[in-house]
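Predict the 3D structure for this chain.
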Amino acid sequence: MDEAALTDRLAGSLEDTRAARDALVEQGVGVVAPVLDVLCDEESPVEWTVSGDVLCRIGEPALLPLAEAAASARAARSPEVARRIAWATARLEVDDPGVYVPLLKHPHATVRELALSVLRHQDKAAPRRFADPAVPLLGDPAPEVRRQAVLLFEAMGAETAVPLLRRIRRRPAPAPGIRAGALEALAAVAGPAVLDRRDLAAWRRLTRIKRRTEIPEGMHVCGSWYAVPSTDQDAVLDAFGLADPEPVTLRTGAAAWNQDHHGWHRTRTHHKCARVFVSPALDGWTLVFGESSEDTHRIGDADDPEKAQGPVVRRRCADLGRRFGAAQWYGMSCGDGWTAWCIAEGGEVVRHYDVFEAGEREGERQGERGRSRPVGAGAPAHPAEAGYLLPHLDGFPDGAFDGVDLMDFEAYLARRRQVMDEFGIPETCHATDIAARLSVDPGSLGPHTRVTGSGVLALTACGREHGHPEGALPC
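Done. Predicted structure below.
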C-alpha cells in the first residue's frame, strides 16, 4: 500500500480510524515501511499516534525498522521524530521482551540506549533476566548508554543487583570500563554503604586524582545553602553537628546536593536530611549545601512548616554569626520562582527576605508596599540589594505591554527593556545576586574562584543512623 492510500485511510482520530487500523494490522509486515514513513513525516495530516498505534499492534515485525529509523539521520535532525520513534518502539505488543536484547549490540548508541530503557521498564524479574547481556554496556563509550545500563541494574532492586555487581567487580573485565560501571551501579542501587574496602579505596583514589586538577564550574542552583566567612572546615562541621566527612570533588558535592534535594521519588526515610555538602573554602567562604537534621525536623514537625522555616533559618544564621562573625542563608528553586535570603552580622539577623512571604520581611525597604512611584526608589533594606528590584514587585506601570504580542518573546523583551530604560526600573534580584555581592554565588564558580582545601560530604544525625542516600554520584 502506498503512502497516499495510507494517508487517506488514517487521516482522522483514533476512534474514526479504528477499522482502517485494524485492517492494516492484519496485513502485518508488508505495511510497516509505509506506516513508519507516515509516523516520521511531521507534515503528514495523519495524527502520529494513529500511525504509531498500527506499528505497536503489528509488534515484533516493526522492531528492526523502528530501530533503523531511530539510528537514521532523520531522527538525529528532528527531536520530534526521535520522540515518536522511541514512543512506538517502547510500546510494541510483543510476547517476549527478549526480542529487544539483540539491539543491545546495535552499532548506533541511540538504539542501544532505547533497548536498555525498554528492558528496564519491565517488572523486576525481567531486568534480572537481561543482566548478562547488559553487562558490556556498563562500559559503553556513550555516556547515556552507560547511564541506562546502570538504571537497568537499579530496576532489579538491591537484593538481586548487589550480588551480581559485586561479582563483576571481582572478576577480570572483558572490556575497559565495565568494572568502573559496575562500581557506579553499586552506588546507584544501594548507596556507598554497599561498597567494600577495595571499592571504597578505588573511589577515594580517583577522587584524589581529580581534585588535583579540578577547575570549579557553576553549580545548578536549586535548594538552600549557608555561607560563613571561614576556612576552618572542622569548625563549620562542628557548628552544624556533622560527622564522618568524606573528601569529594566539587562536581561530586554539587551532584549530591541536587540529587538529594530533587529526590522526591525516593522512598527511604530521611533521604533528604542524611548528608550535606560542605564546600572547600571558596574565596575565603565555606558554603554548606543541603538540609541538616535539626533544621529539617524542626521545620517538618511544626504545625505549619512553611511558616516555621523563617524562624529556624534566622535562629541558625544568628548562631553562626556569633561564631564566625557573619553568616548568610540562601534559597532558590529551579521550578517555581522561589528565592530567599537571610543575612546575619555578628549574632543579629539584619535582613530576611522570602519572595513567598513578602509581607513578613525583616528590614522592609521603603516604598515596598505600593507602586505609586518607580519601584527602586527608596533606601534598600540592606546595601546588597541596592540598585535591584525585589522579586515580589512588578515595577512596571499599568499598560506597559499593551499592544505587545506576549507570545512573541523578542517583542516582549524589546518592550521590557524600553520601559525599564524609560522609567528607570532596575533589574530584579535573586538569591544568587545577593550572594555574589556578599559572599559567593555558587552558580558562577569558575577558574577565577580561589579554592582552599577540599569539599566533603558529611553525615547529619539522620545520616549517622540511616546511612548515605542511595544513588550514584559523578567523581
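Strands lie at 223-228, 243-248, 275-278, 281-282, 286-290, 326-332, 339-345, 348-354, 451-452, 455-459.
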